[in-house]
Amino acid sequence: MRRRLLPLVILAILSLAIAAIAADKVPPRTNDGRNVYRTEAVRAYVEGFEGAFPPAGWLQTITNPAYTWVQDFATPFEGAAAAYVPWQAGIPQDEALSFVYTINSAANEDHLIFATEGSMYWAANANFTVEVDGVEVYNFLNEFTAGNWIWDLVDVDLSAYDGQTVTIAFIYAGDDGADHYFDAVAIDEGSPPPPPPPANDLCENAIDLREQGLTDFVVDLCLAANDYSALSGGCTGYTSTGKDLVYKIFLGLGETITASMQGTHDAALWLVTDCADAANTCVVGADATVSEGYETITYVAPAAGWFYMIVDGYGTDSCSLTTVSIDAPVSNEDASWSDVKSMYR
Predict the structure, then answer these.
(1) What domain range includes position 164?
(2) For residues 173 and 120, what is the distance between their CA atoms, to the nearest angstrom?
(3) Are 136 and 188 in contact (CB under 8 A)?
(4) Collapsing DSSP states into helix, strand and coil, what is residue 272?
(5) What DSSP character marks residue 5?
(6) What's the average model confidence in pLDDT over 33-48?
């Protein structure tokens, strides 16, 4: 977590932050937070934990029988089930599920694909790793960036093992961590490319908020690219190298607009006057919270013109399913509620 200004404020909210973190040891029991888009690829091997558990041909290594890998039907990545391990404090866990496979790159069997989700914070206590013949090829704590309890699809290149019969192991080990999942294990030609970014990934295709009548809406920033970044110490206070989408609105002289956003990533929201020079034409921005926090901007137009709102994030390529709320622009003159509503008809 990055250091913020106003340390007294931080100390005041520390107890609330700790409570929020502690709650993250057990995920929401829903799969709505998936962060990836998978279409059918060439699957030489696939295991989705839909049948017997552990699956046929898989070996389960158990050190803590009451807290080891089990079949879970509440939050699968795809299908009806996933592999799930609950956390425990005070008794170490070292729980593994593994299978043996012969890699054949000529048959496009050179990538290990799987989905996983968990808590990035608690992984420092009990981590999820993947090994091929005892060599670590994936480390959740070091490599996961999607956000707490958001499914992410992992692609591990196995071409170095071409022609070899290897043991692939999925391991949860440590003490006092958090619940963890993995699902949709496949060996195939690689993960299919994600869908193209939305049209409003770039300023020239910014969505007109008034024209579309947008007031409260949800966007998936993980579909976008990282195209724009605020300046360090600028209108948001920090750089914003997360994935971003752009919206535009025409404001008359003296009109006020208020907008807010919230996602599971460290959100950033900023308003600019020139998309060709976004970083240097920011007029207002917000990046006062971290993950799960609300970012809000309010701006009074000093002159009539177009303004571009960039829905963004602080960390490199950070993103999440994000809720955006727009208050209907209100002029500096008295306006009735019916006048405000008419702007969105």
Answers:
(1) 7-188
(2) 14
(3) no
(4) strand
(5) S
(6) 60
